[in-house]
Amino acid sequence: MAKAAPLNHLVWRVLSVLAVLAGLAALTATAQVVQPKAPEGQTATPLSVERASAGDSPDEPGPLATDLAPALTRAAIRKAAQKVADWQLARAEAIFNQQWTYAALYDGLLAASKTTGDLRYHDAVVKMAEHFDWKLIDTRFPHADDMALGRSYIDLYLETHEPRRIADTKAILDRLVVRPDDPEKLLWWWCDALFMAPPVLAKMSAATGDRRYLDYMDREWWQTSASLYDPAEHLYFRDSRYFTQKEKNGQKIFWSRGNGWVMGAFAKVLEVMPKDYPSREKYITQYKEMADRVTAIQGKDGHWRSGLLDQEAYDLPEVSGTAFFTYSLAWGINHGVLDRVKFEPVVERAWAGMLSHIYADGRLGSIQPIDGQPGKFKPSASSVYGVGAFLLAASELDALAQNAPVMCLKAPAQK
User: Which residues does 152 contact at the CB level (< 8 Å), separation at least 6?
Assistant: First the structure.
């Protein structure tokens, strides 16, 4: 019996070492899976938590909706927006968080309240903001993703002008605009970042009258553009890893949602940028280049695929990229930046296409889950940022419909 205790102790130590080694192996395996893709929000939270809260892809999502019409009338647009917003709010409100994924949804919910007149969506965002004390995530400054929630905080501040609604966002941006650039690494090294931080800086400049925020945004935007914008293709690489990679058909890899983020950013930045801002025309020039290019590669079903230049390689349309493109193009028409005759048919086809991915309960499907490159997914896949983009698109289309002739397109059949 005297030898039993040392033996048990030795066994315990061996098992402990094995457990540690197994844990390290699991971490290494996870890193090997996650790091090469460098997905959106890659270090904001553990990816399992972030992915679980952002959306899902059920095997049996139920039947597709049959009660929606693709007519660009205000009634038809509002019905679709409300159906999708109601479904998403019921599923997500209990797990609202401060992540970039939800920041895009909050943008869409605020827009949906204006579109439909239903204040439940607006009030849910206010409740969320109160719960988080109007604060941003501030654990990895100066990461752009963690600033994305500031868009909604500023929008809500402009309703009441209560300083506490933007105090934390302003404090973080004040630290950002005095931060020296790192010559070894771009601040916004991935194209998605242009939707996350620049609109917050532009909105803060407009809300406070402080030009520092806009000037800082302007400098950093064009540094990112100089690195990631392809002047021949008029599209953005997601990040520098894709400069030399190719699709199966030999074309360059341009990610639909990545370019959708950029197009959405143009709309949000230009909307609040002063008309006489020195570089405004530079933004408009690049925005128009991208609008023309995106229009030229739109699919016959009204959508864009996950990989923009190799549609045959991706079975399903990608709705989040399609929604951001639709939002941005409709914004351009509404603000006189894009020609209505040329671009209205584009957004009409896109809207009709997206409606064909709404399920009877309001789920919006065919949205690529969190990633950093083109990929494949289930028809049922839905994520909050894609719903946010859809609601933003609905808002701009509703504005467009106020002066548009009534047109009806047959929704394309879903594959």
Answer: 103, 106, 107, 110, 125, 129
Contacts of 164-169 with CB under 8 Å at 24 or more apart are 164/134, 165/129, 165/134, 166/134, 166/204, 166/207, 167/134, 168/133, 168/134, 168/135, 168/136, 168/138, 169/134, 169/136, 169/200, 169/204
Q: Phi first, then psi: give them for residue 275, nearest 5 degrees.
A: -60, -30
DSSP β-bridge partners for residue 55: 383
Q: Which two tokens stand for residue 182?
A: 């790192």
pLDDT tens, residue by residue, 33-43: 223 344 565 44
Contact assessment for residue 197 and residue 154, using Cβ atoms and an 8 Å cutoff: no
Q: Supply the angle between the helices 47-54 and 100-116 in degrees, to the nearest 10.
A: 20
User: In the structure encoding, which two tokens stand for residue 216, read together?
Assistant: 């800082």
Q: Average of pLDDT values for 71-77?
A: 97
CB 264 within 8 A of CB 389: yes
Distance CA 107, CA 104 (A): 5
5-57 confidence digits (pLDDT tens): 444 444 344 444 343 333 333 333 333 222 334 456 544 455 556 677 999 99
pTM: 0.87
According to the CATH classification, is domain 66-401 in 1.10.3720.10? Answer: no
User: 235 by DSSP, 3-state: which?
Assistant: strand
Catalytic residue among 118, 146, 192, 310: 192
Token duo for residue 197: 């931080």
Q: How far is CA 197 from CA 237, 268, 383, in A?
A: 18, 11, 21
Does residue 115 contact residue 394 with C-beta atoms inside 8 Å?
Answer: yes
192 is catalytic: yes
- Name the DSSP letter for residue 146: G
CA distance to 7, 29, 68, 267, 408, per residue, from 77 (Å): 73, 45, 9, 20, 12
Nearest of 213, 204, 117, 198 to residue 153 by alpha carbon: 204
CA distance 1 to 4: 5
